């Protein structure tokens, strides 16, 4: 069996990983949550957390196919969310609650947005959506608390954090953003990060009832716009983000 070693130096003081405790949370996930989580994750052989940073020795799933069918990923997330609804935050009180770090993320967004629109030709629908979020990201993040019952969230449920085995089993990787919150927050990020808009309806249908989806879209769109800022101008990746962010704006119209 191969191993994947994931080391993290201590987070820079005041950075988002520092404020959110992301690296520490992933260690706790593999120690406490992974053994009972009920979905496939890499097996953990060693977890260390100390002044020099964190280290995880995980099962190597690099031979699995990158990504997953979005319908199956949505069903997997729905199963995870149903399993831990109303229980996760009580069982693991260290889980990051709704709104944690919202002010830090909001300030980052406002700075990033001003740079993005100053150096790039942002399409009007995306520009309008970004302008609506300036100064409002923290409130949008806290609004998730009204989107549905709290459960266990992966926190970064993109298809890039999925692997699929030859017998179609899906594993969820990268649990640094594990937290408690409304399940539809994971669904929203799956859509905005990974699914072409023409398939959004079928992916939502595969997930099941999602009445709070529109409530979490603004905060999720903030994350998408931050990701857009990291893409190369004129790239296929940039075009894909713009397409999905435009679709999110339609949902909020």
UniProtKB/TrEMBL annotation:
SUPFAM superfamilies: Protein kinase-like (PK-like). Gene3D superfamilies: 3.90.1200.10. Residues 19-209 form the Aminoglycoside phosphotransferase domain. InterPro entries: Aminoglycoside_PTrfase, Kinase-like_dom_sf. This is Aminoglycoside phosphotransferase domain-containing protein. The lineage of its organism: Bacteria, Bacillati, Actinomycetota, Actinomycetes, Propionibacteriales.
């Amino acid at each position: 069996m191969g191993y994947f070693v994931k080391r993290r130096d201590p987070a820079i003081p005041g950075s988002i990983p520092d404020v959110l405790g992301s690296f520490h949370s992933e260690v706790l996930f593999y120690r406490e949550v992974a053994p009972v989580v009920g979905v496939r994750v890499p097996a953990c052989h060693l977890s260390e957390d100390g002044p020099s940073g964190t280290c995880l020795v995980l099962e190597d799933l690099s031979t699995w196919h990158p990504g997953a069918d979005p319908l199956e990923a949505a069903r997997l997330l729905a199963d995870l969310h149903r399993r831990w609804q109303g229980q996760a935050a009580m069982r693991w009180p260290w889980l990051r609650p709704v709104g944690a770090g919202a002010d830090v993320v909001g300030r980052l967004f406002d700075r990033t947005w001003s740079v993005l629109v100053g150096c790039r030709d942002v399409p009007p629908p995306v520009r309008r959506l970004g302008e609506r979020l300036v100064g409002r990201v923290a409130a949008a993040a806290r609004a998730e608390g009204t989107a549905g019952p709290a459960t266990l969230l992966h926190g970064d449920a993109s298809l890039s954090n999925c692997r699929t085995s030859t017998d179609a089993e899906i594993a969820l990787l990268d649990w640094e953003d594990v937290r408690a919150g409304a399940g539809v927050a994971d669904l929203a990020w799956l859509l905005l990060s990974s699914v072409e808009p023409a398939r959004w309806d079928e992916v939502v249908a595969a997930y099941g009832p999602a009445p709070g989806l529109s409530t979490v879209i603004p905060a999720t769109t903030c994350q998408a716009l931050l990701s857009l800022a990291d893409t190369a101008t004129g790239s296929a990746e940039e075009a894909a983000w713009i397409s999905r962010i435009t679709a999110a704006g339609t949902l909020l119209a």
